[in-house]
Write a structure and sequence with these properties.
Blueprint lengths: L1 H8 L4 H27 L4 H13 L3 H8 L5 H11 L5 H20 L2 H32 L5 H66 L1
Length: about 220
């Protein structure tokens, strides 16, 4: 068993380098896909809120729904869910909007776990490559003692490349993971504000209707 493991270790860090290159390509693909997704879902939340409030003040629900359809984004999706059920009880609308909010959260979070995993594990993968490279270097020295320290130093230098590449792969992955998480947080904050705005109008509608009945 030990001999088999040693034979595998003697392959050195080269297979690990190919693995790191593959992880790098995967990371780039995810970053590009998420960048396009977030760019397409970018919107001016302040402007949208002001327009929505203006329409709700005039009780123009149909026009408000049309406003949400002009731009596809998590914010408009949640608001549209509330508008389509505007005449229902406040608790019902709140639950429906919360369900839509969770669905949008999943869309925003999609594939980010890949970036997080690559960012946290690529350095360890690179370190594994370095360890395997060092094992191979010392094994080569055992069978070529005439080469002396130069054989070992050359092997170690080659092995350290795996650690360097591991860090090169990990650092951008972590940076973009944090960037997308920050964008996600901003979007969900906008969603919460819009949801509260919608619920405030629904509560006001109920109070107004009660006032009319009392009169």
């Amino acid at each position: 068993m030990v001999d088999k493991l040693l034979n595998m270790a003697l392959l050195g860090g080269e297979p690990i380098l190919y693995l790191l290159i593959g992880l790098s390509v995967l990371s780039i693909v995810v970053v590009l896909e998420r960048a396009i997704f977030y760019a397409r879902n970018k919107m001016d939340a302040a402007l949208f809120t002001s327009r929505l409030v203006a329409l709700l003040n005039e009780q123009k629900i149909t026009e408000a729904i049309a406003l949400t359809e002009k731009k596809q984004s998590p914010e408009t999706a949640v608001v549209k869910e509330g508008l389509q059920n505007f005449e229902k009880n406040k608790s019902v609308v709140e639950e429906l909007m919360s369900a839509q909010e969770m669905a949008q959260q999943q869309r925003l979070d999609k594939r980010l776990n890949i970036l997080g995993t690559i960012g946290s594990n690529a350095p360890f993968v690179g370190l594994l490559g370095t360890v395997l490279g060092i094992i191979k270097a010392f094994n080569d020295l055992a069978f070529n003692s005439e080469g002396g320290a130069s054989v070992v130093m050359a092997g170690i230098a080659e092995a350290l490349v795996a650690t360097a590449i591991g860090l090169i792969v990990a650092i951008p992955a972590v940076v973009f993971f944090n960037y997308f998480k920050n964008r996600q947080k901003q979007i969900m904050t906008n969603v919460s504000r819009l949801e509260n705005t919608m619920l405030a109008f629904i509560a006001d509608r109920k109070v107004t209707s009660i006032g009319k009945k009392a009169a």
